[in-house]
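[STRUCTURE TOKENS]
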Amino acid sequence: MDPNPDFVLVFSLDPHYNSPVRGLPTDKGVKAKRSEQLRDEHSKLVDRLEGAGFAVQGRKGAQGTNTLLLFVKLDEHRVRQEATRERMSDWLHGLASPKPSPREPRDFAAEPVEESERLRLVYSVLTGPTTRSGAASIRSSASTGLTCGLPLATQLPPSPANKVEFPHLVDLFPPHNPASNKLWLKRWASVPTNSPTATGSRNPLDMLTIPQSELDDLKAHLGERVAMYFAFLSFYFRSLLFPSCLGLFFWVLGLPFHPLLALGLVGWSVLFVESWRLRERAISVQWGTYGLDRVEQTRPGFKGEGRTVDPVTGVEKELWSFRRTLTRALAGVPAFFVFVGFLGAVISSIYVVETLLGEVYDGPGKKFLTLIPTVLFVTLVPQVRALWEYAAGKLTNFENHPRQRDHEASLAIKTFALNFVAAYGNLLLTSYVYIPFGSFLVPHILGRLPSRHAAALSKSTSSSLQSGSFSINASKLHTQLVAYSLTAQITGAFVEVGVPYLKAKLLPKVQEKLHHTPSESEKKEHEQSIEEHEDEKDFLKRIREEQLMPTAVIFGEYAEMAQQLGYLVLFGVVWPVAPIWSLINNFFEIRSDAFKITSQARRPIPTREASIGPWLEVLGFISYFGALTASSLVYLYQPQATLPGTAAHYLSNLTHHNVTLPADGSVPFYTTRLSVAQSASLPPRSDAPPLMGALPPANGSFVALDAIKSTLLTAAVVALASSHAYLVVRALARWLLARLAWDGSVASDLVRRRELELKRAWMDEHGLRLAPNEMARRALGWAGEDPDEEAKREGEGYKVGAVGDPADAAANIEGLPEFWRRDENGQGLVQAVGKTE
């Protein structure tokens, strides 16, 4: 039996947990007071829930958690009232929707309430600020009755400093719908199509995306936020076809760092971002969330300085100035730079260790020592990121944003900014520091080490220091990109699916180890005190398993996709087939995310959403930054035909390949602008055997260094020009796509129609839907006049006294002047043209 509760509240039965009663737990008096406080708190909580219209049932929590599960279900009449209130508010504030404009109360209340809509409304009753009973104002979008004012799940467990009303209320979550989850996974186990049969789809590309009907079902089941994420993931997955084909073409031809490849990837990213901008707008119109910010409620947890009246709606609200939020946000900027500086120092240090152990050291145990940088990176970088995520959450709460949308945007920007350094820091160091200046920096670093450590690193350390040179690994950028992009996808899949699966299997055993295993007598006593019906056991077993699961968070999924897009756009010219691996990964990502949400995490609390939020701007920034990196990498590393000369010996050592020089020196070979700059200081060729990988010493090194700096400066100018061209292309793409895909579309017509219908409804309410002549008659007081008098008035003209102020241009005409009653001479003049006397 499944009683289908709306929410499950987790109530701690530990009297010492977060208790407001101070004192030592061993004190018998304190223990008794805490137990009494626990009972009073539970009784008060149940009364609050029942007073708001909830049916409440309590059952024992998961084994070892010492908790009570309170199952709550809101009265159907209250749910219908809340749904009617929300729909009236949406229509009143002009949210675009495909639904026809209402004409009677039934149009607001009779439409079925979807599962996600019900849970969202129930959640608002549970967590909304406590209100008095009474009808709600359609202007304020307030609840239709009593609300519970419980803490949010994201703010639990509460701390003693919060002084919450129910300190033992540690969590709340909606239970899964097993039937819907099973059907969802079954449909998505195969490639989705727009028709029941695979042959019914006319467009083969439809097999690579989630049809709109599936997204609509998902929205009804889990809410707009989850459905919008899968809509984005499906759109991104299908969009990867073009860069995959483009990259495969250049990879087969052996043309990395090609300008057309860079232009194709950056241009694709522009079209992808702008196309999705229109796509999400159309989806939000279909789901009735376009313009959601107009009805967005105050963010739970927001605290103003006082109360004020909204000048538009006339509703009382919290008083808070944006300047206060901005000031607090600026106060957190130094903390961000501290974290960025620390993370940059950690990544740079690990990079140096990796270079010395992997490319300088040639002693025993090298295979094992080269794993040290990887261990350091995996150990330290995630810890810094986790610490920043905690700090970013605290800083964002300190900013005190009134609306949840602004709160999430601020948090997303903080999270992405540090993740950008962690994800792309090594690749940027390799591209713009190691390969250009490695021949100078590595010997310099070795020179800073004690001589015994430098000698232990490499047998050739002394000769390298004397010559001031070092043979760099020119293929390191390609190797790093392959490793990072593939590793990120594999580890991401394991963390998303494997770790939750292992936690679900191991956590119950850990709980048993942490808490004493009850004896047989205790078990019998427990069974006697808490009687569970036989038909409830399967249901309670499932709920207790869900209690131990983590909460599904969509925020991290967007961060993962943004990072993947960055590898493709920023460094796709290095490894052209990277989009293919992303395409393959995302095919399984769609299904693994569905499996994780249904089986490895709690059901997410339904939330309305009109966009992917701040992540759209993050994707736009990645696309813009990709224009800079792609153009500069092409300029620095594009292979070009060069005749053999003094640079050939250096290039042979630099690339660890032998360059065969023709006898006459007429056959060209391929090199790059950066390599030419690095070889600018080579002396004339001599018969002495060259030092392997050595650049010329002394003054020649400064010439090469100046040439490298000049080349990098030119690359920066190329990147700057590319960024300006990018802005022009993006503006043009946005304009064209808006004209081609948005203007005249069904979604666009619905938006225009809803705005027009709101004004028409207002005119109907005030009896103003009249013809212009009738409107003028009533406005000027002519409505009761006799028709003959009206005709006479029209013949004589308007009178100032009857109309109004003399400043009215139409009112200043008292009658037709004599000029207009004279004969009209125009026709005679025209006929006289061309005639002679």
